[in-house]
Automatic annotation (TrEMBL):
The keyword Cell membrane applies. This is Type II secretion system F family protein. It is found in: Cell inner membrane. Pfam families: T2SSF. Keywords: Cell inner membrane, Cell membrane, Membrane, Transmembrane, Transmembrane helix, Transport. Gene3D superfamilies: Type II secretion system (T2SS), domain F.
Length: 403
């Protein structure tokens, strides 16, 4: 079924102007929907924007709204119908349609989600299955939405930090290319065609300038092809993903940020599952990739290996606290896990660990953002300074050139 997005304007029964966006099969269905809302003087305009996968923020909002409706004693089916009527993302609209269709055919909500697993993880679907059995679906939906919001906030912080250096490095590369293409050739004309007596560094810059002028477009095409090839390989090569993770882990500060975010994500997810009544073994199994092709590539390789070690230890009769290693849990966190396990309050201790290390992570992110600005300024000024130094070296050595 092909769906379209429409922008509409209308007036309500009191003559007040209304406007919005809705999803429908065609204009006739869109008008019927608006007439059912008792709107008049309807004007429709087809929105030709391409459909896109819903963002994490949209999934969070949908789960928050679902939890609110369920807490207000609205039935699950009616809640999904309300969400469907307000949905403006075509893939998300189709997902809700399929869920409603499965519910009407007699399937449970968790079964419908397993048939439509697009926008919720395996862990989240397990949580919903358990919540259906315990009658806490609204509470669990709220917890899942909160967990997604926390992960999204962390992701945005890291993206914000990485965006700035990427922009600065891009600008520095553009400036370097402009200097080599337009400025360096003027120095080459000033020094004449004879380059054998020029300093080595100056000759290297002149050769680079000539190469860029002659092969600029092929060089850009080659760089683009290499970038696309690496991106493609990262989507299909487990080995390359492991090498990427090792490189990130060895990077100062950034490696610590990734390790802390992994720990926080693991603790919060495990806390949610244990608090909802999921057995420990089953909760840990949910962190492992499924049997789908390339599923392992899209998982955190370091986390997957650590969870496998923990499961092997538990199967041999050891406690959870005895099986965790420093790859995932620092020594302080291991001690807290041991205390929580002995006291029978492991979920509460996992939440405490996540909150404690979240504060450390925020400090690391602030530290990295403060370090990057002067470091990048130094890189840019260094590149430009080296190019200008290379061009003026023959002038400094003018005495030797005259001889």
């Amino acid at each position: 079924m092909k769906l379209n997005m429409y922008r509409w304007q209308a007036t309500n029964r009191f003559g007040q102007k209304q406007r919005g966006v809705l999803v429908a099969e065609d204009e006739n269905q869109a008008k019927r929907i608006l007439f059912s809302r008792q709107l008049q003087n309807i004007r429709l305009q087809r929105n030709w924007q391409f459909s896109y996968a819903p963002k994490n923020a949209e999934i969070c909002d949908l789960l928050q709204q679902l939890a609110t409706l369920l807490e207000a004693s609205v039935t699950l089916k009616n809640s999904l119908q309300i969400l469907l009527s307000n949905c403006t993302n075509i893939p998300l609209y189709q997902w809700l349609q399929h869920l409603l269709s499965d519910l009407e055919s007699g399937l449970a909500f968790s079964q419908a989600l397993n048939r439509q697993p697009k926008f919720l993880t395996h862990q989240e679907r397990q949580l919903i299955r358990v919540s259906e059995m315990t009658g806490q679906l609204a509470k669990v939906c709220r917890q899942i939405a909160l967990s997604k919001q926390q992960s999204l906030a962390l992701q945005r912080k890291i993206q914000k930090i990485l965006l700035y250096p990427m922009m600065i490095l891009t600008i520095s590369l553009i400036l370097t290319a402009l200097l080599l293409i337009f400025i360096v050739p003027q120095f080459a004309e000033m020094y004449g065609g004879e380059t054998t007596q020029l300093p080595l560094f100056t000759r290297i810059l002149l050769y680079l300038s000539q190469g860029l002028q002659q092969y600029f477009m092929p060089f850009c095409v080659l760089l683009t092809a290499i970038a696309l090839f690496l991106k493609r390989r990262l989507q299909h090569s487990l080995r390359l993903n492991r090498q990427k993770n090792k490189l990130i882990a060895a990077t100062p500060v950034l490696g610590q940020i990734v390790a802390l975010s992994r720990l926080i994500r693991f603790c919060r997810s495990l806390h949610l599952m244990l608090h909802a009544g999921v057995p420990l073994n089953q909760a840990l199994q949910s962190f492992l990739p499924t049997d789908k092709p390339n599923a392992a590539i899209h998982h955190d390789v370091a986390l997957t290996q650590e969870v496998q070690y923990i499961l092997q230890g538990i199967q041999r009769g050891f406690t959870f606290s005895a099986c965790v290693g420093v790859t995932l849990f620092p020594m302080q966190a291991q001690q807290m896990i041991q205390v929580g396990e002995q006291a029978g309050k492991l979920p509460l201790m996992l939440q405490h660990i996540a909150d404690n290390y979240q504060r450390q992570l925020d400090h690391k992110i602030d530290l990295l953002s403060q370090m990057l600005e002067p470091l990048l300024m130094l890189i840019i000024s260094g590149i430009i300074g080296l190019i200008m130094l290379g061009m003026y070296l023959p002038i400094f050595n003018m005495g030797s050139l005259i001889q």
